[in-house]
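Exercise 7. Given the encoded structure of a 457-residue chain, write a plausible sequence.
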């Protein structure tokens, strides 16, 4: 005699589980992409219970498949006249809200899984900004470290020679990311103009100011992160004043998060690069960090040559053992795991907000949420960069050039709006205070409704 097991799962949960199982079978080797999808899917059960029409239109199965994945060979010559070959990608994931929008990453770890995870996250991050931009991402496994300016220029030109036919101001608008700053964007845009024979400033964002770029773009992700945390703290009747802060990374996001946190009265005591981290109990000397990273292009360990009380530790993982009130992971994906989260918790952390993309794994996120830590998820907290990229697009379209203060004021308003939308969605769907759920739902619903309105295609 057999006993029939009756499932207590709702139709919504069964649907979500079914779509995710199918996705795992198709993409079993793409761990980063599956992690990003799972994190969003976990938030969506109450949405599908409230909106069964999303199941009818099979929104999930449609939204997890990119519109297209473009992969191409990049052939270029180094300074010794040796021919080098790299692989390039552009994942155009979803353009329901607006043209595909997302950065280009030049880093040896780039692969299809990472590009898909970043592009998938970008859909909902861009939706949250309230601006008309869809989700995409691209890049190459090219490593700019140790390359001359001439080599980087030749690589960028070769990369754009393949990419140009797939992008445009109203089609797909790339920007910078890890390994791609103003210099690289300039080389890419120069090649695009040569090929197209036209001045289409809106095709790339992150350009140099006065050459089609926007003021405050370099600062935007870091400043936006702090503006988002400011809202979290205000709701908890707290502030940055006299709080101890640890920031991972020392690129644009980290540097300008440190700058704005210090402006609000925080004491930032640590930052890092891919080799290790510095700890300065007297507070990070940001002017020195900028000199090391932005002017000299040196490694962060040289900081201790100028600051006698500072220490340098090889390897990045233990940066989260430094006691702090506020932790801001601004380096790369999965830098905070369960062990790091438990250490932060034991040391009294009150706020964790993500400046990088997916820097906390699911175990870490659950530890923070289960223990009452204020947690700002990446797709909401680090949306400032893409928000100002969209403002750059608007300036390009209108042949305008806004002051730093104008852009910064708009950025501040956008980050406040993202926080309030995420908070409200969390409350409306039964998870008050959970900004992970709130930001996922707020970003998703707008895209899902747009997909329904367009019909099946």
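Solution.
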């Amino acid at each position: 005699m057999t006993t029939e097991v009756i499932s207590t799962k709702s139709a919504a949960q069964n649907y979500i589980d079914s779509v995710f199982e199918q996705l795992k079978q198709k993409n079993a080797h793409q761990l980063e992409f599956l992690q990003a999808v799972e994190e969003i899917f976990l938030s969506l059960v109450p949405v599908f219970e409230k909106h069964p029409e999303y199941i009818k239109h099979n929104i999930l199965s449609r939204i997890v498949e990119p519109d297209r994945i473009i992969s191409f060979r990049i052939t270029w010559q180094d300074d010794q006249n040796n021919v080098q070959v790299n692989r390039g990608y552009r994942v155009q994931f979803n353009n329901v809200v607006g043209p595909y929008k997302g950065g280009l990453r030049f880093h040896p770890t780039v692969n299809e899984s990472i590009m898909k995870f970043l592009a998938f996250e970008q859909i909902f991050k861009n939706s949250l900004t309230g601006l008309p931009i869809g989700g995409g991402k691209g890049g190459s496994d090219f490593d700019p470290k140790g390359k001359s300016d001439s080599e980087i220029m030749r690589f960028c030109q070769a990369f754009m020679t393949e990419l140009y036919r797939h992008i445009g101001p109203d089609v797909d608008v790339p920007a910078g990311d890890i390994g791609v700053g103003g210099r690289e964007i300039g080389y890419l845009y120069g090649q695009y103009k040569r090929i197209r024979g036209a001045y289409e400033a809106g095709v790339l964002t992150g350009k140099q100011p006065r050459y089609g770029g926007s003021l405050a773009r370099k600062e935007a992700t870091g400043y936006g992160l702090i503006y988002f945390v400011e809202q979290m703290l205000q709701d908890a009747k707290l502030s940055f004043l006299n709080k101890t802060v640890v920031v991972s990374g020392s690129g644009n996001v980290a540097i300008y998060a440190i700058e704005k946190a210090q402006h609000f009265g925080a004491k930032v005591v640590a930052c890092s690069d891919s080799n290790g981290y510095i700890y300065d109990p007297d507070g990070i000397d940001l002017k020195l960090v900028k000199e090391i990273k932005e002017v000299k292009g040196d490694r962060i360990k040289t900081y201790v040559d100028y600051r006698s009380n500072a220490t340098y530790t090889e390897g990045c993982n233990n940066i989260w053992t430094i006691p702090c009130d506020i932790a801001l992971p601004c380096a790369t994906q999965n830098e905070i795991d369960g062990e790091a989260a438990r250490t932060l918790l034991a040391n009294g952390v009150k706020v964790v907000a993500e400046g990088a993309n997916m820097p906390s794994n699911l175990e870490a996120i659950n530890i923070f949420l289960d223990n009452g830590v204020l947690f700002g998820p990446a797709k909401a907290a680090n949306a400032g960069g893409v928000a100002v990229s969209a403002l750059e697009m608007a300036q390009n379209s209108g042949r305008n050039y806004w002051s730093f203060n104008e852009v910064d004021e708009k950025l501040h308003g956008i980050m406040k709006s993202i926080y309030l939308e995420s908070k409200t969605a969390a409350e409306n769907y039964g998870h008050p205070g959970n900004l992970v759920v709130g930001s996922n739902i707020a970003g998703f619903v707008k895209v899902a409704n747009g997909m329904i309105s367009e019909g099946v295609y």
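Remark. Confidence is low (pLDDT under 50) at residues 1-6. Students should compare their own answers with the one above.
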